[in-house]
Amino acid sequence: MRFRPLIVSTIALALLPLSGPAYAEDPTPTPTSVQQPPAEDPADPGSKVEDGLGVDGGTERAIVELTDPAETAPVASQAAAESVDVVLQPQSQSFMVVEGTAEELAKLAEDPRVSSIHRDRTYTPAEVAPSLSLIGADKVHAAGNAGAGQAVAVLDTGIDVDHPWFAGRIVAQACFSATEDSGVVSLCPNGQNQQTDGNAADAMTPNCLLDGVNLCDHGSHVAGIAAGTGGVAPGAGIVAVQVFSRLNDEDSCGEPSCLVAYESSLRQALDYVAGLSQPVAAVNMSLGGMLYDASCDATEEGAIFKEKFDALLTKDIATVVAAGNEYYEGTAHPACVSTAVAVGANDNSDVIADWSNRGPLLDLFAPGVDIESSVPDNTTVAYSGTSMATPHVAGALALMRAASPDKPMTELIETLKTTGRPYVYDVAGTQVTTPRLDLAAALTGGAVQPPVTQSPSPVTDDTTPEPDPSDSSGPTPEPEDPAEPEPTPSSSSTPVPLPTVTVTVTVTETAKPPATVCTRGTSAEKLTAKKWAVELHRSTGTISDETLTCYLKLVGKSSKVFPELTKASSLGKAYRVLKSPKTRKAKLDAALLTAWLNWANGTNGTTALASAEKVRLSSKPSAAALKKATTNILKTVK
Questions:
Q1: Region entry Disordered: which residue ranges (predicted)?
Q2: Is 537 among the catalytic positions?
Q3: Fewest C-beta in 10 Å: which of 19, 422, 530, 624?
């Protein structure tokens, strides 16, 4: 079968993992996304208690979810009578917080009025990410504008509906997911081609999962940048629309499955947003297809999307589209449509990302390097790409609309362009100026910053990042007729065909300043527990304490064992976990921490870690199970 969607997945096109090569073995670096557990028996009290609560003794602070708010007081009274410490009993809420041992929590779970018991997890205050400071969003927030009353529609791979970053912000959901008989399946929770009720854009459905990896994490990351807790417009609503389908075809994907978005799905989604009654400031499309070096309005596919984008503009809704990551002097479709807001990526040093598309078709640059945001399983991770730059602009337009609800959207877009910091650079011997997003100048009265002269490296065979199907988290391109000559870019508006299903662009960045946010390393070297102990011991290793602390922070975000069950949040505690473990559990902890540190240092593959952690979280793991899990983990560190 020959797949011919005009628009395809830009999880490959518009996203680059961290600052190193594309992932080949582990398509989406979301280590905490594990295989969907079997359905639990609601009548079994044990199934109500989160794995690992109190399994190593002592008491745990836990949230007890109740079937009805009216049951809070009587259940709390009964728990207190049984010597369980009730530490919080909110009024008119269907939960309470207790501290109890594993046995006490298990006993509490036997009450039919208790629906579940899980850890009362802690969250550190959200720091202002460097990207928000660079564009002045922190100043806008401080002035009291967080985008309240507006919304951003994210047409992507769905959203983790219960992620803390989205609490109370998801105002509408829909799914438009095409299917075909030859291995293309729907990602809508109802299994159909369309869904507009319930959690229609849920990114945690079974079809989003592949061997414990969540294929649908891209949409949550994008939505978090635009309007999540740590995003540009944290007071705005989110309209989450799933527009991708899952393709189960190794020949096309280069792996068992990948995601594609059909034009028909995108058109349905754009019409859905246009028909909403609530205020929507911008539509975010971090995706793309063919490459153009001039406006594509007159092409067949361009004319279709031009009509859709124009219809949204008449409702004062902007369509913000990723320019693409091909290091091309143009954009991917549909960013080439003249009424789209085409966005390229810069880093936190005010330099154009070397893999970003650029040129006169772009409207704005925005931060897109090492951007930390939300991903499924209630965690965060740092990604890079024009996918990450685009929601900075979509969120900015929500802030602009909140500040000036009566101004036409075209005027707000023009304001962002005229107040942005000018990036000046050459394209084919002609000087081009493209503004970098600056909300401080657009909304708080700050002066326009002075121009920054850029010197993008020339695109040559030696320096251009090339798609590499053998080292890609994206699919392998379908071969074309060998007799057909390969098209080359020109100054015309003729599109440069991309593979029907896009491959990931592999980029290794060199001679760059160190990242200003905590991200994974890029080393492929695997260290043993003994070597990691040397690194963690004060002044005996080659990795800095700052980097090691960052790694432990990443492990803490990604693992369910550390530091929830086994305290390894500091260098000293982590050193003790690795040093001479005695018991079966301690040996598994040492193996797990070793593997997680290797992951943080840049190696891929987390399926074995998820399986081993499930054993460790079990209330009564057998000696044989602990030994087998430890052995499996140790295989990954050799």
A1: 24-55, 445-498
A2: no
A3: 624
